[in-house]
Design goal:
Layout: H1 2-25, H2 62-74, E1 80-87, E2 99-106, E3 111-118, H3 127-135, E4 146-148, E5 156-161, E6 174-183, E7 191-198, E8 203-205, E9 213-221
Parallel strand pairs: 3-4
Antiparallel strand pairs: 1-5, 1-9, 2-3, 2-6, 6-7, 8-9
């Protein structure tokens, strides 16, 4: 009887040792690798749990997408400003021959772009136009402007502004001026500026007449 009990105890001991070794090795007769098949997945070490596949939606940074949208909304927008004026004599000795200029300035009077300049060698007598273009380091700038020599008579002068500066860059919304100047003698003649607002609203205005500048009209399309 003692021998049987001893054998039984030894068998239980060997079985326990075998089970312990199998658990340490992480294998079983039915396994083909280190995965502990008898343990549920949620008890397995993280390294043994396969990750779910991810789907790439092509968006790397949502904040950058949002910023781009806001930027598009606040970026300068194109527009068209049509300007017309009927000129008349300033009483100079060369009348009806005359020289003149129409240009855009910002709300502070800083030069933006010339629209129409009719003047040859005597352009130096367009004192106001020369002053603002020189202050902008663009002396006598005629970039993209209608340009001609001295005109032999008065009449309608028309020009269009596409809301760009001399570099072709769109300007921001805000306060601007369209300015007029002419002379018919060797000296400074009359000049006048009309303020307007570049924004999202269209408008048509007929400013009051000024010396040598009548029937003026501004038509703005955003």
């Amino acid at each position: 009887m003692t021998t049987v009990r001893t054998f039984h105890s030894a068998g239980r001991f060997l079985f326990a040792v075998a089970c312990s070794l199998l658990m340490q090795l992480g294998c079983s007769p039915d396994s083909d690798g280190p995965r502990e098949f008898w343990r549920p997945w949620y008890e397995l070490p993280d390294a043994l749990v396969s990750e779910e596949p991810t789907i790439d939606l092509g968006v790397r940074d949502l904040s950058s997408v949002q910023d781009a949208s806001v930027s598009d909304l606040t970026a300068p927008q194109g527009c068209t400003l049509s300007v017309s004026v009927t000129t008349s004599s300033a009483g100079g000795k060369y009348a009806p021959r005359n020289i003149g200029a129409i240009w855009i300035s910002d709300g502070s009077g800083r030069f933006v772009k010339s629209l129409y300049v009719w003047a040859g060698q005597r352009a130096k007598y367009l004192r106001k136009w020369n002053e603002v273009t020189s202050a902008a380091s663009l002396p006598a700038s005629r970039v993209d402007a209608i340009s001609s020599a001295t005109l032999g008579s008065h009449g309608v002068r028309s020009a269009t502004w596409k809301c760009t500066d001399t570099t072709g860059k769109l300007v921001v919304d805000g306060s601007y001026q369209v300015c007029f100047e002419l002379t018919d003698f060797d000296g400074q003649g009359p000049s006048d500026c009309v303020a307007f607002t570049k924004g999202s609203a269209p408008f048509s205005v007929t400013p009051a007449d000024a010396a040598s500048f009548g029937k003026r009209r501004l038509d703005f399309t955003p």
